Amino acid sequence: MTEFIVTTSTRPNGKIIKEAMTTAEELSVPYVRREKRSAASIMAQYNAGIMIIGKDSFVVHAVPHSPPFFFHPNAAMLRAKRWLTAKRDAMIDACQLERGDRFLDGTLGLASDAILASLAVGSEGKVIGVEMSPILAYVVKKGLQFYHSNVETIDGAMRRIQVMNMSHISWLGEAPSKSVDVVYFDPMFQEAIQGSDGFDIMRPLTRNVPITSETIREASRVARKRVVMKDHFRSRRFQELGFQVQIRPSATYHFGTIEM
C-alpha cells in the first residue's frame, strides 16, 4: 500500500475542508469526503493510506489500524532547550555552525537536526531541508509551521526552515557552487527506520536515498565551508567517501567532515 488519499476530521468546518482539498491538490492525490466514516473503512475502500486534516493538524495512517503518524519534535525539543541554556550540541559543534550560516540538511526526516541548525544560524542564516518522501515532507513542513513549543525562540527557528520535497542529489545538482556553508547528512535516520520496530508507523512513508560518491562530490562543490556526515561509529562510509572522522568516546555514532 503506497498510494494515499486525503480526507478531513469527522466534523470539519469549511476552512478544514478547503485545507484538505488544497493538500490533496498539492500532493497530487485524491480528496475524499469523510461523511462520518472511520479512517479504516475509507482506507479499505480505496486500498490506500490516508492523511486526515484537522484544525492545524495533519495525521497520517499508512496502513489500516496503524498508530497515527504526526509531527512532534520530541528529541529536538530536549536538544533545543539544552542548546539554548548551554550552547552545546554535538551536531552543531561538528558542523561548526555560526550565526548567518546557510545550512543544507540532505536527510531531513523529522527535522530534529534542522531545528537545532536553525537555532544556531539564527534569523540571519538559512536552513533548507530536503526529503524525498512527499507525505513525510508535507507533514514535517506543516508541523514546522504550526507546532507550538511554548518557547518563542524555538518556534521561530522551526518557522524559518524551508522544506523541499526532492532527493538530496537533485537539490545539489541544481544548486550553484559555494551556495551554502555546510551540507549535512544523517544516513543513520533512514536505516533506523528500516531496521527498528519503533519506526513501524513511518516505514511505509520513507524513501531511502543512499549517500554515494556522486552525492559527496556535489556536496563538496556546493558547500563553502564543509560537508558533515553522522554515521555509526563502525561505518565504512566515512573512509569510502573521504571523511575525516571525529572520534566521540563511548558514543554509538561519530561525525565525519570534509573541509573545503
From TrEMBL:
CDD domains: AdoMet_MTases
InterPro entries: 16SrRNA_methylTrfase_J (IPR007536), SAM-dependent_MTases_sf (IPR029063)
Entry keyword set: Methyltransferase, Transferase
A molecular function GO annotation: rRNA (guanine-N2-)-methyltransferase activity
Protein name, as recorded: Putative SAM-dependent methyltransferase
Taxonomy of the source species: Bacteria, Bacillati, Bacillota, Bacilli, Bacillales
